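Exercise 3.2. Students should predict the tertiary structure of the chain below and write it as structure tokens, then compare their answer with the key that follows.

Predict this chain's 3D structure.
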Amino acid sequence: MRELLSGLFSYPFIQRALVAGTLVALCSALLGVSLVLKRYSMIGDGLSHVGFGAMAVAMAMGAAPLAVALPVVVLAAFFLLRLSRAGHLAGDSAIALVSSGALAIGVVATSLSSGSNVDVMNYLFGSILTMTAGDVKLAAGLSFAVLLLFLLLYHRIFAVAFDETFARATGIRANLYNMVLALLTAVTIVIGMRLMGTLLISSLIIFPALSAMRVCRSFLGVTLGAAVLSVVCFWVGVIASFLLSTPTGASVVLVDLLVFLLLSLYGLLRRRTRK
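Answer key:
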């Protein structure tokens, strides 16, 4: 097993995937706690579909997919916040509307283009083989920016996520920090789509936060627990995908699901023993 693992880590594409994936998993977990508390966790799924639509159109036009997807997804995040805040549509309805529309645009763009089906499949389901050194540098730069902003604004994001009404009463500009949270989520979604795929990247936001909430009680505990679980599950999923020759994104999600079920069972047993 030791020789197998040492051989695994000797592959450059595995090294690139682990570096980029660890940073994306960390960002996703930190943001996921706030999004789950605000009952806005499905924004990750909606934005990932927007990213797929933007990338499909970009590839059909011969443009750089990530360069097109990043501003489009950021604008979509602000658009969703605007719709929900104005009261025109409920949060889940707005996400469903934008998500289905963007996915339809991506499918039509793919069907009208030729020679891009392989790339589209990689973006849909993720592939560690497609990670280049440039992708890793881009992911590292954006991930460090996301982490830095989250740490600097941690207390205000916590206040807005936990009780937005109270945060407004204390003078915190809740709308501004909601926009910051949406911006950070959009950036994280875009840099993770290459590795996890647009259909599965939202799982990195949801699963670690929900798993940590099964055993932790404080916001800080849940945040740290989600970060640790996200990184560990990602590494285990990548190693399992290599050993079993399964898709990377799906393998990571299955590991996250298993951990969630185990911690849910543990939390249930702990509550019963206390009664």
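Discussion points: The chain has one domain: 2-274. Residues 2-274 form a domain with the ABC transporter involved in vitamin B12 uptake, BtuC fold (CATH 1.10.3470.10).
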